[in-house]
């Protein structure tokens, strides 16, 4: 996420390292680079300029009042300004109605349908709500089918009426269906087009007026940079929406949209989409995002994600197994699957302070575990629970079955042995205290 921008800002802020104080001269040099970094990230010219002016004023003003090194002070000021620019505090959804109605708007391909599904899934699992999805795209039957597929995937009902060509009527019927059947949130997915046009705007505006949603969300593809900001403006003029959803932040987004949108439409970014999977949704926290942009990682989100996947009962079972030396490959597989559920690997690594920068050239993909999984799947249940059974001929068979080599099987077995030993060690003496501390 935002690798380029992070790198350039890091370089710009590095200029001040080694300087005893912030002066008109070195601050100007640094800020020229900061501005260039922002422009390269597709931040609007005026916003980039105002940003650096504010940072400069603060830097020169606070210079004498602080014991921070100039470099640290500058990082802090840039962080605060970035946070402010992206929205200050995180803002949640208004779910006060019964049902609460959420209207999704945005261009075709922005990720509306995917996000509708993600949001339904999020509300269902995190907020114990009972959401209903409503398909209001009357032009593309495939879009309606897509929402049904998504609904099935997450176990959320989808209301649609394929013969009906009136999106307002479908939206109203969907809400009536929700009321009659005990759904407390209705998420309405609407038709988008490839570019802003009259007909689409009139249609979404009619739906908006007719159903008066508690939340109108504008979904935008962050990869489109300044275009994202312009589209946001057009939709906001018509809908006066409540919040922005930035999708596709997992890709090579330059970051301009995330930094600029709030100050242009004066509406908060509420969620971000970080992948195609239904779990790839995050609440948008401006300050955490600023940390990530500045390469400081985002430990809070990382811990939250880990906690979401943390299952107390399973963890206790696992601890017992380790103590009894019964930790096998099935348990290992379960651990891998839990890690995978936390999100895409590159994204997770980016949350570790400093690691994103260190690993930027390392090619980490989500298939990183594929080979390991294939090897484990090729073992018999007996071999999985008792890896010492795996002799030379079994290794050959496992290699063949998993499409890997005997060396790779050996390597995994070796790593597994080391890991088991370490776990065993952690169970006794110091380790116990450490585990206790980690559990908090
Ligand atoms: P809609 O036309 O606005 O409903 O857009 P879709 O929901 O159909 O999404 C368009 C494409 O973008 C699909 O291929 C999605 O899988 C993909 N997509 C949506 N959100 C994300 C995201 O956060 N990250 C990535 N990488 N792809 C996404």
From TrEMBL:
Pfam families assigned to the protein according to its UniProt record, in alphabetical order: SRP54, SRP54_N, SRP_SPB
Protein EC: 3.6.5.4
Localization terms from the record: Cytoplasm
Keywords from the UniProt entry: Cytoplasm, GTP-binding, Hydrolase, Nucleotide-binding, Ribonucleoprotein, RNA-binding, Signal recognition particle
Domain SRP54-type proteins GTP-binding: 268-281
Binding site for GTP: 106-113, 189-193, 247-250
Domain of life: Bacteria
Record-linked CDD domains: SRP_G
Reaction(s) the record says it catalyses: GTP + H2O = GDP + phosphate + H(+)
Class of the enzyme per the UniProt entry, highest EC level: hydrolase
Main location: cytoplasm
Domain notes: Composed of three domains: the N-terminal N domain, which is responsible for interactions with the ribosome, the central G domain, which binds GTP, and the C-terminal M domain, which binds the RNA and the signal sequence of the RNC.
Protein family per UniProt: Belongs to the GTP-binding SRP family. SRP54 subfamily.
Assembly mode: Part of the signal recognition particle protein translocation system, which is composed of SRP and FtsY.
PANTHER family in the record: SIGNAL RECOGNITION PARTICLE 54K PROTEIN SRP54, SIGNAL RECOGNITION PARTICLE SUBUNIT SRP54
HAMAP family linked: SRP54
Function recorded in the entry: Involved in targeting and insertion of nascent membrane proteins into the cytoplasmic membrane. Binds to the hydrophobic signal sequence of the ribosome-nascent chain (RNC) as it emerges from the ribosomes. The SRP-RNC complex is then targeted to the cytoplasmic membrane where it interacts with the SRP receptor FtsY.
Protein name as annotated: Signal recognition particle protein
Source organism: Bizionia sediminis
Name of the gene this protein is made from: ffh
